[in-house]
Amino acid sequence: MQFRAGLRAPTNFPVTAGSGRFRTECRAVELSPSGIVLDRGYKVESRPIPLVLRIEMRLPERLRPLVAWARPIWARGQWQALKFVGASDADRLSLAEHLDLQRMRGWDPK
């Protein structure tokens, strides 16, 4: 059984994830108001992951990166799911707008 809070949309934009000196460039492959799935480009279990990561998301329709704090939920190969635990109200609104744009571009949540 899978539990998902909110709708998810496929997406593709660059993300910087890290904490302190640990920073890595990756790609967002799925997004929801409550979290994100990243393609890390390497097997996630092969490297230590901090408990909370700072995520900088470079959405195509935004000039500045959106920043959120997230904690790892699961990892499968080079994919990793993160749950947002903190973000500004403005950045949360920008994420919701990005999801609306994805829906208008033809994404069907069914």
Fold and architecture overview:
With 110 residues, this protein is mainly beta. It has a six-stranded antiparallel beta barrel with strand order 1-2-3-6-5-4. The protein has one domain: predicted glycosyltransferase like domains (Thrombin, subunit H, Beta Barrel), CATH 2.40.10. The protein has one helix spanning 89-104; strands at 9-19, 22-32, 35-39, 53-57, 66-76, 79-87. It has one helix and six strands; from the N terminus they run E-E-E-E-E-E-H. The mean pLDDT is 83. Helix content is 15%, strand content 47%.
Mean pLDDT level: 83
**What overall form do the CA principal axes indicate?**
globular
H/E element sequence = EEEEEEH
> The CATH topology is what?
Thrombin, subunit H
* Helix and strand composition category: mainly beta
Radius of gyration: 13 Å
* Multimerization status: single chain
How many separate domains?
Answer: 1
Residues in helix, %: 10-25%
Q: What is the element layout, followed by pairings?
A:
Layout: E1 9-19, E2 22-32, E3 35-39, E4 53-57, E5 66-76, E6 79-87, H1 89-104
Antiparallel strand pairs: 1-2, 1-4, 2-3, 3-6, 4-5, 5-6
Short key terms for the protein model shown above:
6-stranded antiparallel β-barrel, globular, mainly beta, 110 residues, 6 strands, Thrombin, subunit H
Summarize the structure.
The protein has 110 residues and is mainly β.
